[in-house]
Design goal:
Layout (H helix, E strand, L loop, with lengths): L13 H16 L16 H4 L9 H4 L19 H13 L7 H6 L3 H12 L13 H13 L9 H5 L18 H13 L9 H7 L3 H13 L8
Helix pairs in contact: 4-6, 7-11, 9-10, 9-11
The structure holds heme C (2 copies).
């Protein structure tokens, strides 16, 4: 049930995770200027509404509110920690994360564009999810993985790192609750196949490699049913 089970390595135990988080955060984020969250009422920056040359206006795909578009495959950006957000832009530029649409947009963004759009989207509430049409047994299986993991198969609980409500822990652990299922599936598969390699200490690669296709689908569908749990729009 948890890392104390006999025969399991210490890899994903609570103390391992805590140590890992502390060392990762201190190594990766000490140089990042802590960005104060802007107030939700501030006008969105021009990079979001108008873009900057080849950096197309973020709002045209992700919305001003960062709710994204599930049909088109544009992810929710609302409430991502600013440091995680800015790191993704830098990772698209560096090529440790690639996407035919986002890579050229990121390449055209300045550091200021990345920081101001990150601040703007962090201040937006995670959208409230609509009713799910997915089989409740699939949702229940995904919920169990997110909350309890499957220690017999080396799968740690997702919420151990992504917070008990899946809304993430700044600066490094993104919100995964309320994300569109197809996007979540694509990211987990990208780690499995090695197409996304930007995760610190290969944490998500290790997690994704332990997940079956059914695990991936069910956890993604479960996460999509969560949002701000009534606090959002
Ligand atoms: C033409 C559509 C489009 C536009 C315009 C666009 N994006 Fe994206 N964005 C995407 C897609 C598609 C993805 C998903 C990439 C993937 O699957 O890895 C994405 C992913 C992202 C991510 C990663 C999210 C995560 O959860 O890790 C960030 C951050 C992001 N976009 C920021 C921006 C910013 C900032 C702008 C404006 C300068 C912008 N995007 C403009 C389509 C767009
Ligand atoms: C040991 C800590 C840890 C655990 C456990 C963990 N994650 Fe993550 N996860 C991370 C980190 C760190 C990142 C950010 C990677 C990066 O910087 O790109 C991440 C990123 C993600 C992303 C990408 C989010 C986005 O917006 O693109 C998804 C999806 C995700 N995790 C899903 C899961 C699921 C599902 C589980 C459980 C099966 C899980 N994670 C368990 C640490 C963890």
């Amino acid at each position: 049930m948890h890392a104390g089970s006999p025969g399991l390595p210490d890899f994903f135990s609570s103390s391992f995770l805590e140590r890992m988080m502390r060392s990762f955060i201190s190594h990766t984020f000490t140089a990042v200027v802590v960005m104060a969250a802007s107030s939700a009422t501030a006008a969105p920056p021009s990079i979001v509404t108008q873009g900057n040359g080849a950096a197309l206006a973020c709002a045209s795909c992700h919305g001003v509110d960062g709710a994204g578009n599930p049909q088109a495959g544009f992810p929710v950006l609302a409430q991502l920690p600013p440091a995680y957000f800015a790191k993704q832009i830098a990772d698209f530029k560096a090529g440790t994360r690639t996407h035919p649409v986002m890579t050229p947009i990121a390449q055209a963004m300045s550091v200021e564009d990345a920081e101001s759009s990150a601040r703007h989207y962090a201040s937006q509430p995670r959208p409230k999810a609509g009713a799910s049409t997915v089989d409740p047994a699939v949702i229940a299986r995904g919920r169990n993985l997110a909350i309890n993991g499957a220690w017999d198969r080396q799968v740690p609980p997702c919420f151990k790192c992504h917070a008990v409500d899946g809304l993430g822990v700044a600066p490094a652990f993104p919100a995964i609750a309320g994300q569109h299922a197809a996007y979540t599936v694509r990211q987990l598969e990208a780690w499995k196949t090695g197409a996304r390699t930007n995760d610190p200490q290969k944490l998500m690669k290790a997690v994704a490699e332990s997940l079956s296709d059914d695990d991936i689908r069910s956890v993604a569908e479960y996460l999509a049913t969560l949002g701000t749990q009534g606090k959002g729009k």
